[in-house]
Q: What sequence folds into this?
């Protein structure tokens, strides 16, 4: 996890303030404890905090292309960057680092706004294009990496977390009442609005361009494809296909130059990820589990059973009632909005445990969505039928 933030003034006569940018960046130091970086020039300022995962020695940001006409700050991982690199080098692009960040820069040189269509991974990034005097911002297809912004016609501010924008002088933390009904009904806000007036989210699968004339263009570049299959196949075809895709996905996420582990609850999702990671790495992995003092609500026994089966180096943390409620204020600060899901608290605790031994973790998050694991999906299907 890294963090990015920045400012851009459409009026080229205005000047980005390095001191203000530094204060904004300091708000997300927890996202990147290993390094920070700044690019300040005229009416634009870019900053980032780095958690070093790939190309630890030379992957410093902000990073530019060969002639320094394009600068980027980026949060994420591009899993196909090696394949993209080979193609870009064949087209004449020269690399100075081994980082996936530089691949995005050269892709933008080659394809402009369409660069995002080639990326396989999770990302939020901002590119300052000196050639055309514009800022280009993009977010991954599913919105795994966050990106918030404020644009009032005079200034454009962005960041991985809302608190970076609120640090800017004169920006007030005002509640956006239009979001309360949806938030209380579903526990999240699906559209571009946030709970802070004037601060918006760049939606998943979207790009944003802003030039020095103050013209802003936000466009989708991807949406979930829907449609019925033309040919029905045996159940085994889908089982085999899903297994192959899952194993390929886990393998791609093991790209790391630093220690890596897996969150393990003992459920089907995280257990499958842990087992496949062990299979691919061909060595014992580090697994991490969290539980509660009340055995009836603790998953620790299930996690231990899986850990023993795959032979992992297993670590546990038990969360007390006092610790659970004591962590809430800090978590609300991290999430920039009220806590909805109790699992956020336990996830925070197991993440702190894992950070003592590894830098990167894989989890079973998202499996319930791909496999219709919640009961509401069955209800929805029945209502459609």
A:
């Amino acid at each position: 996890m890294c963090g990015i933030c920045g400012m851009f003034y459409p009026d080229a006569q205005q000047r980005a303030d390095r001191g203000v940018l530094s204060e904004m960046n300091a708000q997300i130091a927890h996202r990147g404890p290993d390094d920070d970086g700044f690019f300040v020039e005229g009416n634009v300022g870019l900053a980032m905090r780095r958690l070093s995962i790939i190309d630890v020695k030379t992957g410093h940001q902000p990073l530019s292309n060969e002639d320094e006409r394009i600068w980027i700050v980026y949060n994420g991982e591009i899993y196909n960057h090696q394949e993209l690199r080979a193609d870009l080098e064949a087209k004449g692009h020269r690399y100075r680092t081994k980082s996936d960040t530089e691949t995005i820069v050269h892709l933008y040189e080659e394809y402009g706004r369409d660069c995002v269509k080639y990326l396989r991974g999770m990302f939020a990034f901002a590119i300052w294009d000196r050639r055309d005097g514009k800022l280009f911002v993009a977010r991954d297809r599913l919105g795994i990496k966050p990106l918030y912004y404020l644009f009032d016609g005079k200034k454009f501010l962005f960041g991985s977390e809302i608190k970076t924008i609120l640090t800017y002088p004169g920006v007030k933390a005002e509640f956006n009442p239009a979001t309360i009904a949806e938030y209380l009904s579903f526990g999240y806000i699906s559209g571009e609005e946030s709970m802070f007036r004037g601060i918006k989210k760049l939606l998943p699968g979207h790009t944003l361009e802003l030039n020095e004339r103050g013209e802003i263009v936000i466009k989708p570049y991807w949406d979930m494809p829907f449609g019925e299959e033309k040919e029905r196949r045996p159940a085994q075809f889908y089982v085999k296909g899903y297994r192959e895709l899952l194993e390929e996905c886990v393998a791609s996420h093991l790209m790391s130059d630093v220690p890596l582990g897996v969150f393990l609850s003992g459920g089907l999702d995280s257990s499958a990820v842990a087992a496949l990671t062990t299979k691919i790495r061909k060595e014992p992995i580090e697994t991490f589990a969290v539980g509660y003092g009340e055995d009836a609500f603790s998953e620790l026994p299930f996690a231990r059973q899986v850990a023993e089966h795959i032979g992992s180096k297993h670590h546990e943390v038990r969360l007390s009632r006092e610790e659970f409620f004591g962590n809430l204020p800090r978590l609300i600060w991290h999430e920039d909005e009220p806590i909805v899901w109790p699992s956020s608290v336990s996830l925070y605790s197991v993440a702190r445990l894992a950070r003592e031994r590894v830098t990167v973790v894989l989890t079973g998050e998202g499996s319930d969505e791909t496999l219709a694991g919640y009961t509401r999906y069955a209800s929805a299907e029945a209502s459609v039928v």
